[in-house]
């Protein structure tokens, strides 16, 4: 078997094959650096998405919603969280399925908001660049929905937060670097290991700390991992061009197909979870309070959880 030597890109420090004329990671042109800086070529995975404006747009939406909640009243009260669309099992069981989506934009306190925005900024721009904008949206929202669904199915607390979707981004990056680990060399392997470590560490913290909805994290991570396997571009080295070329099925149709399959799985799982929750004590008490007025239903901050 022929062994190919590697070199380090002077621009992004990625380990790439010495035969490369253009860095497949950042697009650095060894032969014509100045022209490349002025007119980047579209031959690397990062060049598919030169900006991360979708990540920033989502961050802005999350921030605006939190400010509006603070303006209206106590943003951490159960009533306020439910009013703005937090995950509240009785109302979801009663047909308000949209809460599985809106809960991804609501946060309980400034610390919760800060950590999720920071994680989204770091991870979102990577996924948006590696996968492209449409795939980024599919990964973010569908894995986020899976996180909300896991929370609904296994946790009765009022919960909210973007970390289910953020864990989906972590899962997608794990899939990406695992599938394309040869392309990135030693730096890619280190990135893969560190990303896995971050996921495991946060899950351990979630299980050992009260007030954190770890089921949402698990659901989002599994959704991101599986979506990442389907949407990750596979690359092989083209010796004629001196770059890695993708041989995945390209185009919007492929993204819509994979996204639709996972969304259909989500709808089916939701139907099962709703059916199971219809006989729960929590839902029966809720119906008694709001439909007949015969049961006492008390909302408490101790029943809130982050995700």
Describe the structure.
There is one protein chain. This protein has twelve helices and six strands. By secondary structure, the chain is mainly alpha-helical. The chain folds into two domains: 1-44, no CATH class; 50-277 and 289-306, Rhomboid-like (Rhomboid-like fold), CATH 1.20.1540.10. The strands form three sheets. It has a two-stranded antiparallel ribbon. A two-stranded parallel ribbon has the order 3-6. A two-stranded antiparallel ribbon has the order 4-5. A hairpin with a 4-residue loop joins strand 4 (235-238) and strand 5. Helix 2 (53-72) runs antiparallel to helix 6, helix 7 packs across helix 8 and helix 7 packs antiparallel against helix 10. The protein starts with 5 loop residues before the first strand and ends with a strand.
Task: Determine the strand fraction and express it as a percent band.
Answer: 5-15%
What is the CATH homologous superfamily assignment of the largest domain?
Answer: Rhomboid-like
Give me the CATH fold name of the largest domain.
Rhomboid-like fold
Report the CATH C-level class of the largest domain: Mainly Alpha
Topology at a glance:
Layout: E1 6-8, E2 15-17, H1 33-38, H2 53-72, H3 78-83, H4 89-93, H5 99-102, H6 110-131, H7 133-154, E3 158-160, H8 163-179, H9 181-208, H10 214-231, E4 235-238, E5 243-246, H11 252-277, H12 281-292, E6 304-306
Helix pairs in contact: 2-6, 6-7, 6-8, 7-8, 7-10, 7-11, 8-9, 8-10, 9-10, 10-11
List keywords for this structure.
Rhomboid-like fold, 307 residues, single chain, mainly alpha, two-stranded antiparallel ribbon, 2 domains, elongated, 7% strand
């Amino acid at each position: 078997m022929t062994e190919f030597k590697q070199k380090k890109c002077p621009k992004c420090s990625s380990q790439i094959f010495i035969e490369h004329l253009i860095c497949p990671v950042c697009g650095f042109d060894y032969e014509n650096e100045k022209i490349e800086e002025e007119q980047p070529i579209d031959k690397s995975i990062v060049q598919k998405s030169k900006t991360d404006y979708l990540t920033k747009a989502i961050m802005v939406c999350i921030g605006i919603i939190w400010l509006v909640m603070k303006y209206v009243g106590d943003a951490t009260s159960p009533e306020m969280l439910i009013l703005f669309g937090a995950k509240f099992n009785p109302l979801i069981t009663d047909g308000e399925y949209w809460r599985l989506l809106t809960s991804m934009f609501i946060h309980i306190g400034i610390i919760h908001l800060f950590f999720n925005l920071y994680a989204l900024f770091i991870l979102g721009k990577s996924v948006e660049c590696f996968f492209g904008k449409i795939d980024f949206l599919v990964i973010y929202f569908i894995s986020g929905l899976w996180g909300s669904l896991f929370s609904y199915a296994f946790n009765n607390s009022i919960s909210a937060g973007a970390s289910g979707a953020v864990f989906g981004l972590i899962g997608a990056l794990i899939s990406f670097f695992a599938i394309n680990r040869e392309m990135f060399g030693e730096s890619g392997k280190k990135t893969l290991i560190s990303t896995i470590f971050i996921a495991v560490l946060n899950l351990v913290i979630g299980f050992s700390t009260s007030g954190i909805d770890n089921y949402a994290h698990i659901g989002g991570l599994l959704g991101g991992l599986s979506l990442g396997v389907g949407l990750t571009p596979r690359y092989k080295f083209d010796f004629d061009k001196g770059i890695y070329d993708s041989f995945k099925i390209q185009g919007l149709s492929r993204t819509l197909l994979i996204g639709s399959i996972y969304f259909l799985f989500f709808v089916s799982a939701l139907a099962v979870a709703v059916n199971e929750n219809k006989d729960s004590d929590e839902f029966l008490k809720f119906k008694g309070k709001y439909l007949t007025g015969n049961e006492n239903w008390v909302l408490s901050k101790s029943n809130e959880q982050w995700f």
